[in-house]
Amino acid sequence: MRTLIALACITAIVAVPAALIAQENKNINTMTKAELMALKCGLGEVKAQRVIEEREKGQFSAFADFQARVKGVGSKTVEKLKEKGVICEPAVE
């Protein structure tokens, strides 16, 4: 019984940080339209579609590039994205 409890504790200790890491690594260059909208950061259906369309022209190099290219995205939206753990860096294809 002690072995099972110890194993459960170890599993929980390992799983929680892994889940937090996965949650923090949301990249604006790889997120789907639905994922962007689900963030509740000011990216509704129209702006999320704009993100996808601009990204098809080329990945965003940084949040400044993202903000400059996507109409209607301002500094408040960028700050909210950062607070949600979203990053903006070229994704490896």
- pLDDT under 50 segments (min length 5)? 16-23
Note the run of SSEs as H and E: HEHHHHE
Q: Quick one: biggest sheet? A: 2 strands, parallel
Q: Span between N and C termini?
A: 46 Å
Q: What's the overall average pLDDT, rounded?
A: 85
Helices, by number, come to 5
Proportion of residues in β-strands: under 5%
User: What characteristic shape results from the CA principal axes?
Assistant: elongated
The share of residues in helices is: 55-70%
Number of β-strand runs? 2
Structure classification? mainly alpha
* Rg over C-alpha atoms, rounded to the nearest angstrom: 17 Å
Structure description:
The chain has 5 helices and 2 strands, in the order αβααααβ. It starts with a helix and ends in a 6-residue tail after the last strand. A two-stranded parallel sheet has the order 1-2. The protein has helices spanning 2-24, 33-38, 45-57, 63-69, 75-83; strands at 26-27, 86-87. It is mainly alpha-helical. It has a domain at 27-87.
Topology:
Blueprint: H1 2-24, E1 26-27, H2 33-38, H3 45-57, H4 63-69, H5 75-83, E2 86-87
Parallel strand pairs: 1-2
